[in-house]
Hints:
One of its GO terms (biological process) is riboflavin biosynthetic process. The protein is 24% helix and 33% strand.
Amino acid sequence: MADTPTAPLSGTVVHGAGRGRGLGFPTANIAPDPGTPAPPPAIYSGWLARRASGTVHRATISVGTNPTFCDTSEIHTEVYCHDTPGDLYGERVELWFVARIRGTERFASVDELLLAAREDVRRSEALLDSEHGRHVLAVLS
Length: 141
Ligand SMILES: Cc1cc2nc3c(=O)[nH]c(=O)nc-3n(C[C@H](O)[C@H](O)[C@H](O)COP(=O)(O)O)c2cc1C
């Protein structure tokens, strides 16, 4: 996939602005390790690997400035995990990107953002189940 790095993004889960949980869309905010590969800002499907447990989880990832809410240039890496609601704070994780879903947008309302994010998760599920998604899973396992 041209837009996704072939090596994982590694980092630590940190506290974000705390909006996601209130929106019913909790995300793990990742502080990437210095020098770790990161794709350009966009929404992606990918696999989240937790170092401590050795488990791998289905994920939809936002890399961007969250323009719906912020006017800063700071890039956030946020992961919505499809299959584990657990608290990941402080954990070391790796993100294995599978495919780009769409570009980041500035939505006029939170409802529009949530509609788009739910659709992203649906598309991400299919991408993770695709031949390429399963290949990435085999490489990291
Ligand atoms: C699947 C997904 C898609 C997202 N798409 C956008 C987007 O297009 N525009 C945007 O401003 N933020 C987007 N975000 C980021 C949200 O704004 C962010 O997760 C939310 O504000 C919670 O941030 P917090 O965890 O720092 O509180 C997306 C997040 C996810 C998980």
